[in-house]
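SAMPLE LOG
Freezer: B-3
Tube label: C17
Construct: single chain, 99 aa
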Amino acid sequence: MQPVDIDILKLESAANKLRAISHPMRIAIIDLLADGNKMSVTEIYEKLDIEQATASHHLNILKNKGVLNSKRVGKKIFYSLRSLILTEIIECVNRCNEF
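STRUCTURE (predicted):
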């Protein structure tokens, strides 16, 4: 059996991203952005029927953990997924719940 190369930094990064998405509201945000959509804070909180402060809090966590990109256009900030791989993880978890 060959030894397994373990990159601790990559594992820590992955664990941080998984912790960041492990909240129902953050999963809902990722789901909104899953098709490559770019949405503003206003669009997100209106779509999810939550307070603006709550949306901003969750978006900040996702952005700081490297899950989301943000781009300012005028007075608005638009968010998008940094990678669609996370949507595949969420889809996998949803399939596990079908049992």
